[in-house]
Design goal:
Blueprint: H1 8-19, H2 26-33, H3 47-59, E1 64-67, H4 72-88, E2 94-96, H5 109-119, E3 123-127, H6 134-141, E4 146-150, E5 164-166, H7 184-199, H8 207-221, H9 227-240, H10 243-246, H11 250-255, H12 265-282, H13 286-293, H14 297-335, E6 341-345, H15 354-365, E7 368-374, E8 380-385, H16 392-401, E9 407-410, E10 414-419, H17 421-431, E11 446-451, H18 457-467, E12 476-486, E13 491-494, E14 501-509, E15 515-520, H19 523-529, E16 535-547, E17 550-559
Parallel strand pairs: 1-2, 1-3, 3-4, 4-5, 6-7, 11-12, 15-17
Antiparallel strand pairs: 7-8, 8-10, 9-10, 12-14, 12-16, 13-14, 14-15, 16-17
Helix pairs in contact: 1-18, 4-7, 4-8, 4-13, 5-6, 7-8, 8-9, 8-12, 12-14, 13-14, 14-15
Length: 560
């Protein structure tokens, strides 16, 4: 399919989509379709301060510690820094990630005291956290521990005693282009590129692996598909589908499926990232950093299998939570139909699956959702996901300022929350009275590209590959089929391990006679709506799977 010659219609669809993103000329189109990562185009704030302090640490052979986060962005960004320091400097930093099961999010005073007691560093580098850790970083400074912060979270209690605060959101007057949209892994990539230039060690740095890891972190954190983020993910997708480039990171190579299919954005988001994230959701995230930094193939394979096993367990826990959360959400909406945020909690849920469960419930109800579960300290913690243009991060800042959550932070699309038992009902009540902030110029998640009969399945698939990555600012392409007639009885698709239904499949015939193999994960609605011989308007996306030398296409229903 890589050699497929696109028709005039396919090229027209691509051009029209790009024009709606502000791409006008042919040269702009080529740059947009084949973006280059340009770290030197815009400087990162406080990058020079970070370089100067790291230079001193190398000269004095100081003890350096990297402190990250337990999600995929934290794992990948920590790994980028570790690999860079090992490849390009004499530093051999210690590193630590918090444990979702026992620790709070980010660098608080308790975490700072533990880090000093265990590692006694003179320089602490925080990645994917630290911006708002004012108390902890002042405490560290008073004990002669300097801090470099590399972070992308919103600012509400800025840590002013840090030696360097590499967070574009903390420097609104600093001219850094669209770098404020970078996640922690993207910031790590750009900072390492800057450091490599300053130290003259670019030839020693495995930049390709850093790009791939930054792409993973970017997709995992659901940040806007701005110019810089688009370049990172686009190049990461090219590299991860290049065997020689993928082989540079034996851990990632062991984690990526080996089935002959192209590794596209959807596969990374739904297969690779969840497996990496499963470590921190159900256990310790630390093996994820070992996985992405080890050169031992045996160790990498063992750790990759651990990721996959935990991901299976995570799916089962998540499915149970989603089912119960939907039932609870229906009860809450019956009482307060207009509430902009659903606060859902059960004392037997696992907070490690709160984030992905919240995403599913958000899709179901079309509004933002926060899912809470008890932690080991007798409190409650959880995650929230925003619906469409909702700025859930800003909403949470207001709620925290009013004292209705104990802890909270994140960004527009996703947040982490800590509350007491008493605060849960208070939060539900106040949620109906605090307006939800909206993201200006937010685009929908999906955009209709055209009717299914305009192109062949091969061309539709290729168009999707050319236009990805998708996300905020770059909507997923939707393909429609008007009055498509169902030609086979709907059949339930069941999971092998549990036997539970996960989707319904059926055959459809388009107006021009094209046969479609269609699946719909909303199986309850599908079984109730789909009847043999009836016609329906479908909104779909297409995927291709090679088998015995042929390509088979599946159409996934997004809505009917």
């Amino acid at each position: 399919m890589d050699k497929l010659q696109l028709s005039h219609t396919a090229k027209t669809i691509i051009h029209a989509y790009a024009e709606r993103r502000g791409v006008e000329t042919s040269d702009q189109l080529q740059t947009w379709l084949n973006p280059r990562i340009s770290p030197s185009q815009y400087p990162l704030p406080d990058a020079n301060k970070a370089f100067a302090r790291l230079d001193r640490a190398i000269s004095a052979r100081e003890k350096v510690l990297i402190f990250g986060d337990y999600d995929a962005d934290g794992i990948t960004s920590t790994s980028i820094l570790l690999r860079f320091f090992r490849e390009c400097t004499s530093l051999s930093p210690a590193w630590r990630l918090p444990n979702r099961q026992t620790d709070h999010y980010g660098l608080d005073l308790e975490a700072a005291k533990k880090l000093v007691a265990e590692h006694n560093p003179s320089l602490l580098i925080t990645i994917d956290c630290g911006t708002n850790s004012r108390e902890a970083i002042t405490w560290l400074k008073n004990r002669a521990v300097d801090t470099i912060i590399i972070d992308h979270h919103l600012v509400y209690s800025q840590a002013t005693d840090a030696v360097a605060l590499v967070n574009p959101k903390a420097h609104p007057s600093f001219a850094c282009g669209d770098l404020e949209n970078l996640c922690a892994a993207g910031l790590a990539l750009h900072l390492c590129a800057f450091l490599a230039e300053q130290w003259g060690c670019a030839a020693d740095w495995d930049n390709q692996t850093a790009v791939v890891l930054a792409g993973l972190g970017t997709l995992a954190d659901s940040v806007p598909v701005s110019t810089s983020n688009r370049a990172i993910v686009k190049n990461a997708l090219l590299l991860i589908n290049t065997p020689a480039a993928l082989a540079r990171c034996v851990g990632l190579s062991a984690l990526v499926p080996k089935d002959g299919q192209r590794i596209g954005q959807r596969r990374l988001q739904f297969e690779v990232v969840p497996a990496l994230n499963a470590l921190g959701r159900l256990d310790s995230a630390a093996p994820g950093v070992t996985l992405l930094t080890t050169a031992d193939e045996v160790e990498a394979k063992t750790l990759a299998e651990r990721c996959k096993a935990l991901n299976t367990e995570r799916k089962n826990k998540q499915a149970e939570t989603v089912s119960e959360a939907i039932a609870q959400g229906e009860e809450l909406l019956a009482r307060t139909p207009g509430v902009p945020v659903l606060i859902l909690a059960r004392d037997w849920w696992h907070h490690g699956v709160a984030g992905p469960a919240a995403s599913k419930v958000t899709e179901k109800f079309g509004r933002s959702v926060i899912v809470l579960a008890p932690d080991v300290n007798g409190q409650w913690k959880g995650s929230g996901r925003a619906h469409n243009s909702d700025n859930l991060g800003e909403w949470l800042v207001t709620v925290k300022r009013l004292g209705f959550v104990t802890r909270g932070g994140g960004h527009a699309g996703a947040v982490g929350v800590g509350v007491t038992t008493e605060q849960i009902e208070q939060l539900r009540i106040i949620a109906a009275h605090i307006p939800m902030s909206q993201i200006v110029d937010h685009e929908p998640e999906a955009e209709v590209m055209g009717d299914v009969d305009l192109l062949t399945p091969e061309e539709w698939t290729r168009v999707g590959e050319i236009l990805e990555p998708f996300g905020s600012g770059n909507p997923y392409p939707v393909i429609t089929a008007k009055n498509a007639r169902i030609t086979t009885d709907p059949t339930e698709l069941k999971l092998r391990d549990s036997g539970k239904t996960w989707a319904v499949k059926a055959g459809f015939l388009t107006k021009q006679g094209q046969k479609l193999n269609v699946t719909w994960t909303d199986f309850t609605t599908a079984l109730a709506k789909w009847h043999l011989g009836q016609s329906y308007d479908l909104s779909m996306e297409v995927t291709a799977k090679p088998w015995n030398g042929r390509l088979y296409f599946n159409w996934t229903v997004l809505s009917v």
